[in-house]
Batch of 4 targets.
Target 1
Amino acid sequence: MDALTATRELDLSTVPLRSVNALLHGRPVDGHPPLGPEESVVLTRPRGAHAVAVGLEEPRQVRVEGHVGYYAAGMNQRADVVIEGNAGVGVAENMMSGSVTVRGNASQSAGATAHGGLLVVEGDAAARCGISMKGVDIVVGGSVGHMSAFMAQAGRLVVRGDAGDALGDSIYEARLYVRGSVASLGADCVAKQMGPAHLEELAGLLKAAGFEDDDPATYTRYGSARSLYHFHTDNAY
Amino acid sequence: MTHQTDRADHAVPAHLRPSATFDAATIHEIQRAAATGLYDIRGGGAKRRLPHFDDLLFLGASMSRYPLEGYRESCGTDVVLGARHGAYPLHLDVPVTIAGMSFGALSGRAKEALGRGASEVGTSTTTGDGGMTAEERGQSKHLVYQYLPSRYGMNPDHLRQADAIEVVLGQGAKPGGGGMLLGQKISERVAGMRTLPQGIDQRSACRHPDWTGPDDLTIKIQELREITDGEKPIYVKVGASRTYYDVKLAVHAGADVVVVDGMQGGTAATQEVFIEHVGIPTLAAIPQAVQALQELGVHRHADGVQLVVSGGIRTGADVAKAMALGADAVAIGTAALVALGDNAPRWADDYAALGTAPGYWDDYQDGTDPAGICTQDDTLAARLDPVEGGRRVANYLRVLTMEAQTIARACGKAHVRHLEPEDLVALTVESAAMARVPLAGTSWIPGAGIASGAPGGW
């Protein structure tokens, strides 16, 4: 531990993942003093490990130096996690609060079902980005793959690049902002007018993600036509 | 489904021959579909006659077997679930658990009553789609938290508050299908818990959003263990269909407990065509699951994988038969709701007003449950006293347990888990083949040669 900067460095190639997550959960771990309340953590050499820094509950700065596998920072609460690399499937899945930043690209289902917090993917995100999102804000620096925001219930998804097929299929009340092209819209997802409130909202999201130079007026808003909210024979296609 | 008539019923002349193919219910359904253009959505499980536990009989002890004295010799009923990977296992006093049913499908008072009843006899209850309510957690000594494709209300705090986690891949009433909750039940509270607009017809996803196969499930279970610091047993629940393979894959993925739900298992709302035509009977699923567990060397071992079976459990005889076939415990859903008061004659007038009758009502989905159990209508929900409901559930669970003990003792078993297939015979060729026990009075198990090894043709 660096006493001056109050940063703990843990090498995932030598410290077992179980021990790392236990420390981050405030659990006692042999050979490792408990983390201080203000102590930040740097995880080195993750080597694509799954479930890195999952289930965090307390405010804490965590930086992961390298690529991670599935579910990195899953179910995050209050912590701020930065991944200095690419992330596998389901990064920040079911996040409740806090923030997760991926400096590289993210695989599919980034931010899946997340209820809150901010997920920033500075590169591209693959298929199903924001699937079933329930309140999270997601900002993707590049493009997103097909079926992104599928059944998205609440929250905001910002895509600075393009979106793949079936964007927002069966969407509920989430709001989607895409700057580039959309390959196709999913069932019940439609383009909507950008009002002043939306421009302001988008500007805030871009600023929070570090893209404040973008002009919000260059984006298109998408959301639910609300035609699938009640079962009807015409929906049975 | 309610049956409405727009004219008085007439006596049917005795010489008229009804069609077995186009029976009265079928004709009514065609007429209803033609009139509305809507498929029928209802609750409950399969209503058709299926090979079931009724088709099995126990061979009570006589000369060649030694029975236990019914009222004096002990017969254990406890079961430990989920110890395989070092989690804190569930120690249940009785092997009958309460299956997953959502707050939303059920009222908060009904969920509380189930928790009270289960806790009184020392068994577990289970959340459902939509998350965990405070009253359910508060009244449940052992609470299993379902982790479903929709992730409605999914909260890591609740994961940590649970006693076990059940990853739900499907349910017996609709393997391969997602859930639904119609707008009548999407109250302000339900909508808030699920992050949905109030009053909409809610659809649940049929697949998990962040994993797509058994290899991914392995990693998902790893994540759940990491988040809960390995303290919570992980169940995997499947709807009975390709049970042999599903159970093997669940175990390989790291399940501590496998839950198999047969097609008689109920639902709060699903298409009738789904309920009656997708999945396999509970009786056919159990031997497949047991075979899979045995081949993996984890069936009924101290550090093995426990099998929980649900779908049409009604009596202690059903409990005993499921356990004799290899289940470690069973789960009840529909029967628990009946114990609480659903389909009770006291509400006959209300059922009549809905176009149905006690014993026939299956419109769990529409929020008008006269018994106040499957509803979000405050006035109806107030009809159920959770304390009295809990007492009824506890009584029923005790009866199931005592009945199972009675049978186990008659078979010479000092624990209900000692019951075995050798204690059973079948009444029909079909049930003999499915349950893999001999036809009564014979040593013939139809298809016995086929059933060894991988179940070809299934």
Target 2
Amino acid sequence: MKFLTFILFCFLSAQSFAAETVYTILLQNHRFNPANTTVPAGKKVKLLVINKDASIDEFHSDDLGVEKIISGNSKAIINIGPLKAGRYSFMGEFNAKTAQGVIIAK
Amino acid sequence: MFGTAVIVFREVLEAALIIGIVAAATRDVPNNHRWISAGVILGLLGSMIVAGFTDKISELASGMGQELFNALILITAVFMLAWHNIWMASHGKELAANARNVGKAIKDGVKECSILLTVVGFAVLREGSETVLFLYGIATSDQVKVFSMLLGGAIGVVAGVAVGYTLYKGLLRIPMRWFFSATSILVLLLAAGMASQAAGYLIQADLIPSLASPLWDTSEALPEKSVLGMLLHSLVGYDARPAGMQLVFYVVTLVIISIGMKLTNNQPKKNKLQVAA
């Protein structure tokens, strides 16, 4: 019985996973655009970060607990959430002075 | 230049602390310095290769290649450190007393050395590939301050190595009575911290759930970017905002390795020299 419940849970999780919206963030001239992105709280979220610069950078967020290297002229998917409501900052670590952004979970 | 130095310092520090602990923990393993040096060199070569293949790696596994690659390397290192601790629990005292190498002991000795090489190599590979990409990006950029940034990178490397070396020397001065316990605990915490980091990557790859993220937030009290935070992160796996699943991996690793060590220690021993404590 417990096993069946587990299987059902996996199935339901997979279903909600398939319905995720993707939020696109551009990295251009070492700046994130949009700098602020609002996402729903309590849900898994996918970010599509497109590095339009020729140089490599690292999407780094201590608040979100993620880090991922994104080569020049490349893109990457970053999975975050479920997040509690609040503000989560992130940066392009190799260009931290200008590459700053915030994920706002509501 | 300072910003670059800090970034490089953080990466190098993490590898240097691991190497320092492993070097101290294996002080009585014959030729451990050679194996460790080989590990560092192979790790550096490997990190350049990985840096070169970053794009290809990232594209694997539906774009989660980076996360999986990092997680696999960390998990492999966890198993190696676990084996080391469990093996040391039964053989450490013999090594210290220069016992004769008999059959299995020799085979174990070779295994232990290849473990040394792998753990060290992987640590350098992980931190090195990021640093290589960062420095390469600077060197090939059109920024005016290239030289000062590269100088900052060099400073970061030197500073990181210096801290690791200091830790190594400091550990060697621990009285023999407590030495094996102290290094075993450090290796145990290293393994648990790596398991927690691996969990972080698996969560990022959406392969396991986060189970409450963050579980706690001590970033005001002790930021990970502070010097103490950095040290604790590398040594005991401190995370200011860990996911619940990361804590699970941490504790499970601690428990399993500890049990393994206790079990080997309690085995009745054959053909071993009696060592005066």
Target 3
Amino acid sequence: MSGLFGMLSVAARSLEAQRFGLDVVGQNIANVNTAGYSRRTVDFAALPPTSPLNAGGGVEVQGVRAIRDALLDRRLWQERPAAAMQGAIADALSIVEVALGDPGASLDAALTEFFDAWGRLSEDPTSTTARQQVILKGEALATSFADMTGRLTLAQRDTDTRIRGVVDQINALASEIASLNESIAKGVAMGTDVQVLRDRQGEAIKSLSELVAVDVIAREDGGYDVTFGLGRPLVIGASDFQITATPVGPSGLVTLSANGVDVGGEITSGVLGGLLQVRDTLIPGYISRLDEIAYAVATEVNTRHQAAFDANGAAGLAFFDPPAATAGAAAALAVNAVVAADPALVAAAATPDPGDNSAARDLAALRDSRVMFGGTATLHEAWGRLVYQAGTDTQVARQEERTRREIVMQVEALRDSVSGVSLDEEAAGLIRFQRAYEANARFFTTVDSVLQTLLTMVGR
Amino acid sequence: MGVTATGRPDPTDTVNRLASVLTDLGDALAKADLDGVLAQQSHLDELARLLPDLDGPFDRDTLPPAAMAALLALRRARQLGEGLTQFAAATRAARGLVAPYDRDGRPSDPVRAGSFDARG
């Protein structure tokens, strides 16, 4: 193609290509606020020369494609569920923190009042009123333990309700992705533009990846297969495989299954992973710690009370109903009904002499005795550690959520910082970032070790 | 930075400063700010020298939250750094730009390095 007409043809074809490019730019601008819209770009390709005597055929549009940075997409699919998981944990634990109450106005206040009542009885061991107060404060303490267990159990049930809702959302998104897979495959086969469908599919996968960590595999027909956990299928082509939530046992908490297989243990990320961790690990851990404290209260008080003498000069009975085991001790804690019915059965004396106050003083002093965790903490300190643990778990989850979201921002910032430069410059820039980080990171192990030691030293 | 009666740096002040430096490092990593990352190196260097010598009385009320804040900041910087490293490695690999030698001078991609024949 040479001569004037040939040159015009080249110019016309190039002009057409550039106009098409402008259309695409306009579309990008128009959709700048459209959720899930991927920026389109135009691939221009040089047409090869038709003979050794001309310079080439100009450019032509090869096609429109969405800029889908596979690497960035993959990174986002990894980080979103991790961030969402920590956010779910932090949200759920903030409810637990409220349930545990403020320092000095929660279970610790009931403990203080109980031991104060023993202190007042030691000042007047023959007082029926003081004996009655010990029983009342003992019952109030037992109620506090039961209430606290109830609040934590309620938080666990609330979390379970959220789990059911998230499973419903996951199943709905799986259905949508499967349906889009079918439409995209048909569109690709017929040669129609499926970009809008792809954008919707991208949005659905993004939403899904917040709820549960998924692996996304591109199909040859243009769709995506989606799996979760240990490769459990969620979407294969046009078929979706639902997750089932089934209430089990007296607690009524749901177990999750897919194709009849229990998958609860495989879901360790996303909102669902976070909620499962709160329901199955964190809250049971707090309840267990609460049980340990209640068990120690019952056994330590009973041991002292049974070694003492009541107002009738008889050996003391168990003050609290003896707990059968540590598990469930907080919910079951109760003042022995026989003692509760007769204040004279409160044992305040170390001898059969009803005027003796030694046992009451000993029981009042239990407040400051290190009877928890192998003799390292008082009952109050054990409660304080439980509250601190819940607070720390929340704080760590919140920080982790922020960091995960920052990693997404970081990847985007990196992508922007290296775009528009040559591949060599891009690679060099990334190496410089990496080396700069590594220069700082060489201190991390030392710093980590020192901080862990510090926290151990101060007993937290 | 405050000092104790023994002339050593106050532990809580030192740990607070560490948390601040690590937070700044995390901020710089999050923004892919190379200068910001580099700027923290001397601060961390100095603090890493001070930390093993922390001694003397410390405040039980202020030191634990400071240490926890520093640990969280450290974890954040570490995660962001790992994210950066993975991104850099994956980007280079995706572009086919594999560094011919690692930091110890060994070929990082023996197949590629071994197949190169400068004599044609």
Target 4
Amino acid sequence: MSFADVLAILSGALTTIWMSAAGIAIGMPIGLGLALIRWARVPIAGPLVITYVSLLRATPLVTLVLLVFFAMPQLGVTLEPIQAGLLSLVLNTSAFNCEVWRASLLSFPKDQMEAAKSVGMGRVLRFRRIVLPQVVRASLPGLVNEMSLLVKTTPVLAVVGVVEVTRAAVRIGAETYEPLPPFFVALAVYLPIVFVLVSTQRRLERRMARSTAP
Amino acid sequence: MSRPIHWLARRTLLAALPLLALAAAHSSAGAATLEEIKKRGYLVVATEDDFRPFEFVKDGKPTGFDNEMVEVLKKSAPFEIRQQILPWTGILAGVATGKYDVAITAAIITKERVQSLDFTSPIADATHYYVKRKADASIKGIKDLSGKTIGVQAGSALLGRLPELKSMIEKTGGQMGKVVEYTSYPEAYQDLALGRTDIVVNTIINLQALVSEKPGVFELGQPVSGKSYPAWAVAKGNADLLKFLNEFIAKEKASGTMPALQKKWFGQTWDLPVSFTPEF
């Protein structure tokens, strides 16, 4: 394994990081939106969200990305590998995020809502000041769990030609006939990425605990 | 060459995605004709990234026999060449749906594949051989293969022709051992080196590349199949594009460019047929 090979894996790491970050940044708010639609029992949209979430939770990411990449052109939409990969990540993670958000929304105590209503808070204010801060805190472990899963599913995108950490490592192994060293380097790249996610979670939790302390 | 996962990928696609099945059913509807390619000004070529010595990536740059042929094609083609690099899994599905115009990779011509794809003139000889650990003194010829574990790529053309090896072993009075299928060859070689499998079957070209890179670990065995050729693939019925590519291959064969590249990447040249009808 040469220095250029390590650089190739690091450039794959950049792809992994930015695609994961973009997938999370787009997918998480969409997940919240979907969860709210279900939580508020919006007519028509509610059942649609149920269908969307069930379908996407049942679709393996590799199938989804192949479908997006090869079937969309049939509908007249041509996507580059990166675009198809990102779209699939967002579709996939938004469905799982929706369920995380929804679980916290469902367990939100009703008496607090009634208390807020009784002091004359409107719907939006109630959501922003009472529900959201607590739901964010309750969802955080589940969300971070889903984020780290997303980082680790990115190798699947290689199937349409996205070169992330694992594919870069596979290429090197195929060239040198020594597949193990590049995989160790790849592993060493994933560890800090997931570590950053988990330590951010801890820091956020600590801060939130402080801010709500009496 | 072990074009393995291709039908597997296609099957996954078709099974899981009725929409795509529909699209693939009238597949040539998606594939661009030579005239359409000339009109829009570019040809979309798909190549692989982990199939040394045909196509692989060295220091971040695509290289190997097929990639050099693409470079030659770029110089003479009356249109731009746009190249997409992706794993084998998606390549033939992409050609069948028209996402790519041609797979410039070493797809072994098989009976099953010619039903959904058209193949150009062969680009190499891909007779199947076995490779063994150099240190393994128990294997000296076909007759010693009785009961040995055989590694091969899943869904590959090589897997489909193992019955040939089986009858060769049985002729010597032995019995074919367990067959282990791998998703890709680098893993099979790794297992062979580790002793979890006794021989790995692949084409002579791939195995010569392996043995010359790791002469201390592996040793080439004997042929275990009849004739077998890899070629480039276009969508079924895309006759004009096929003719264009065959003319390109014939021209580069005559000019000496293609034999020189074969010599460079495969260590030898062959007298290859212009077309090949597979028996398997």
